[in-house]
């Protein structure tokens, strides 16, 4: 048997079907490579089938031995060969040097996220449409909920429910609906094939089924089950919640507990965060790998950077659209502006779209197709960043009165953004030891126009006196 | 002799020229109407001329008697007749019912302010050009400094200086330059003729002459002199400072002291305020008649209203223009948007303009001509307000998730604003006891389009799905 590095090795065994295997049977395996042993929980997948999934992070031979409180499942041994990853497989995403992300093989990862909260609950036709849209879109991260969603424009029942039971007769939180999880895994695997990280939201408040108000034991059973099933997917990120602060049945200690449980159960230490509505969770806590923020003022990225010393992901800064809600009615211009503003300050700002639709198919929750004008511009921004040196850091290159932020690499490279104002010029301070070329970028029109001549030291840069202008400044070799 | 109500009665006397009449001679008059006596300070106007000016607020006979420490000026008596005001004369502006302004005769006053800080220091040609521009502009309040200004784009010397002396040899703060004050009075009188209130800034930090760092005695002598000269102009408002918090030579007690001194010296109790840069003065203090605010977030008007229980004037929310400074590079759209946003929340938001000019003639400081696209839209807004019932109060007419502010009169009239978003509809809550017509206003295109039918109770209003849309909602009679 062969599994590629950061691929999924899956061991399937037959075991008991009587009683409630979800709670009665403990099952897992130890995976061993050289002198390293990794404890991995397995899960019950219905019909007497038990599985354990494992994501090897080193090439070579891995040996395993199962453990269980059930003799049929206990003490099975075997091994498999971990081979080179395929070309598109760079491993899971990790935090790099405090503020950045990179895949485990060192390839830079620049999050360009979008949100389709309930896309996996819309049935195959719509879900495949969403995947087709994503194949041509600039996004490499998807915020999505495990549980179905009940909210404005979101009144349809999901195809699958996570637990056995029904809305009418109640749910048996001790019995998972394996169809639900198999379906979710399939979709997460399809995202992976598209190079998209699944920022998986474990809890959220928009609920009519009772999944947001389960008891403590059920919450934990659910978290253990989902981490056992999904941790081996290299594109998983754990988001404890969307708008955790709106979940009245939970308190801060619950969120701490969930973080710590995931930290304990996930053998691969995937990224962990929690997303606010009004009030931030303390992103400084040690189990939080990066900030996951809802906020409309992207100039604050600078402050959050300093405060948390972690990557700042602003998953939600309002959505391009035209619904009545103010969080879903910003123009494409404003969406692009906010994403540039936060990006140039060193953050990673997410997209979303909420255009009124006769059938209530809004991208932000159900997926489908994109109608807006921002994705094309985000593609342009992503290209600019991918053409830039790695691990850029935000600095202020303005002089006199105002800050003018730029992503920079030493004294060699600057990608600046002048905002929604329409300045006819900006004064900037470059090194007076070097010469620089400057290109004027129009973030909306998606043009790059070189300025004549070279620049050095403190200098005045003529601008087209319109909003959404950036500057690319490069040292002359 | 006859003076119209709220006009200026001026008594001129000859007195001593020796010594320093500005400090040696006390002079003033008591003005009496029926059983009311008003103490009025006079001033020295050079060449042995002493004057006292008086703004009568009642029709009928006023008797006066002068007082002085100099026998030539003491004990002169006389009387004059105060007659009906002329058609355009409504008296000074007063605060009305906590949040509004009205002229003393009861005529509503809706501030539409602009700023030309140093316009009276630019020489006659430019100053007359400014007046000609104002004659065709929608503005009825002008923020302007007494002292000349030293700042970016403001490096020219003024024509007149307020004190005797020179920059090279120093100033004699005990001797006022009467030419300076006569010139300023002339300009203030010309504003009055155009129906424009002079929001006169007494101190400011942008100084190379030393007027921002005078000693305590000189500050007070200056304030007494200027109130003696100018209080009788009915269009005077006293602004203690522009950006008081940048004046490092003054502390909060100084500002309290200046307010109290003006309150004591001005017989007519003109409006008093002080303008911040970063940090607000406490507008709740009793000598402050209204808030004078610099801030870019106009949604906060709602909060300031509740906090201070006084009219909220936001004199500065950035300026339409294209200079490098972010406070002077907002688009005309954004300027119009901010003014609507603050207005509909019950505030009074000021205009300003800062377009780069080859001769550094920027409206915001020097006046001249207007280049921008916002004044026309402010004219449109002013018309809408003048066509509205008086004394509108802001309320939230939105339902479900978001606030939607409207200026309202009982259940009869609403002027709402949907902001910079592009909602395709809004849900509003009207009385279900009445029927209403609704017109859609495009604040940028300056159109008013009636919607078909009538509306009542909770209802959905279809919008053109673009930014800067207002609604005028009127009860069907």
TrEMBL record, chains A, B:
Q: Where do the coiled-coil regions begin and end? A: none
Q: Which InterPro entries match?
A: Apiosidase-like_cat_dom, DUF5060, DUF5605, GH, Ig-like_fold
Q: Which part of the chain is the Apiosidase-like catalytic domain? A: 97-351
According to its UniProt record, what is one Pfam family this protein matches?
Answer: Apiosidase
Where's the DUF5605 domain? 408-474
Domain DUF5060 intervals: 3-69
* Record's protein name: DUF5060 domain-containing protein
Its source organism is Mahella australiensis (strain DSM 15567 / CIP 107919 / 50-1 BON)
């Amino acid at each position: 048997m062969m599994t590629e590095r950061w691929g999924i090795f899956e061991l399937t065994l037959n075991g008991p079907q009587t009683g409630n295997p979800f709670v009665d049977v403990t099952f897992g395996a130890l995976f061993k490579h050289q002198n390293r042993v990794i404890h991995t929980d397995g899960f019950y997948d219905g019909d007497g089938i038990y599985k354990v999934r494992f994501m090897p992070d080193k090439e070579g031979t891995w040996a395993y031995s199962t453990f269980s409180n059930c003799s049929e499942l206990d003490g099975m041994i075997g091994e498999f060969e971990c081979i080179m990853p395929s070309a598109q497989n760079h491993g899971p995403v990790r935090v790099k040097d405090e503020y950045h992300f990179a895949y485990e093989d060192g390839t830079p990862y620049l999050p360009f996220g979008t949100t389709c909260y309930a896309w996996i609950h819309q049935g195959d036709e719509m879900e495949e449409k969403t995947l087709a849209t994503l194949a041509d879109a600039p996004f490499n991260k998807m915020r999505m909920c495990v549980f179905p969603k009940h909210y404005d424009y979101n009144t349809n029942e999901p195809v699958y429910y996570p637990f056995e039971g029904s809305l009418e007769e109640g749910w048996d939180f001790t019995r998972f609906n394996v169809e639900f999880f198999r379906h979710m895994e399939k979709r997460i695997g399809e995202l992976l094939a598209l190079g998209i990280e699944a920022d998986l939201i474990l809890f959220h408040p928009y609920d009519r089924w009772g999944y947001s108000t389960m008891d403590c034991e059920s919450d934990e059973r659910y978290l253990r089950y989902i981490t056992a099933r999904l941790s081996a997917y290299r594109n998983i990120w754990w988001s404890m919640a969307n708008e955790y602060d709106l979940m009245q049945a939970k308190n801060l200690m619950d969120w701490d507990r969930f973080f710590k449980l995931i930290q304990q159960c996930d053998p691969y230490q995937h990224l962990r965060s929690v997303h606010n509505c009004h009030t931030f969770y303390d992103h400084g806590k040690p189990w939080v790998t990066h900030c996951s923020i809802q906020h409309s003022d992207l100039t604050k990225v600078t402050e959050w950077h300093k405060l948390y010393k972690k990557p700042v992901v602003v998953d939600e800064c309002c959505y391009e659209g035209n619904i009545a809600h103010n969080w879903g009615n910003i123009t494409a211009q404003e969406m692009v502006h906010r994403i540039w503003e936060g990006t140039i300050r060193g953050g990673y700002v997410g997209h979303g779209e909420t255009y009124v639709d006769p059938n209530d198919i809004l991208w932000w929750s159900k997926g489908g197709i994109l109608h807006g004008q921002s994705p094309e511009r985000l593609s342009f921004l992503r290209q600019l960043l991918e053409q830039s040196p790695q691990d850029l850091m935000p600095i202020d290159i303005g002089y006199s009165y105002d800050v003018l932020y730029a992503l920079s690499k030493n004294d060699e490279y600057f990608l600046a953004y002048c905002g929604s104002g329409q300045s006819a010029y900006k004064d900037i301070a470059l090194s007076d030891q070097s010469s620089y070329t400057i290109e004027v970028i129009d973030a909306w029109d998606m043009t790059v126009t070189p300025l004549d001549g070279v620049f050095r030291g403190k200098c005045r840069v003529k601008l087209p006196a319109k909003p959404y202008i950036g500057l690319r400044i490069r040292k002359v070799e």
